[in-house]
Design brief:
This protein has about 70 residues and is an alpha+beta fold. It has a domain at about 30-65. Helices cover about 15% and strands about 40% of the residues. It contains one helix and four strands. The chain is elongated. The relative contact order is 0.18.
């Protein structure tokens, strides 16, 4: 029987970090049109070849996504 190929997500993520360096690092404070925010996460969008960031605004108690 042929075993399914094992996907190593860490290698894929590290390749994206090298090939497409992120604009912001996690924990960095940024200024947006809505106010001051802190980057709390990121995801790579394969189709657009860009990073999508999750940010938490300092004056609001919820997390929003920025592209």
């Amino acid at each position: 029987m042929n075993a399914p190929k094992v996907v190593n997500n860490n290698e894929i993520y590290n390749k994206y970090l090298v090939d497409y360096p992120p604009q912001y690092i996690i924990g960095q404070q940024i200024f947006t049109k809505n106010g001051v925010a802190k980057v709390c996460g990121r995801v790579f969008k394969e189709r657009e070849k860009t990073w999508r960031y999750s940010v938490k605004y300092e004056s609001i108690n919820f997390i929003m996504d920025l592209e």
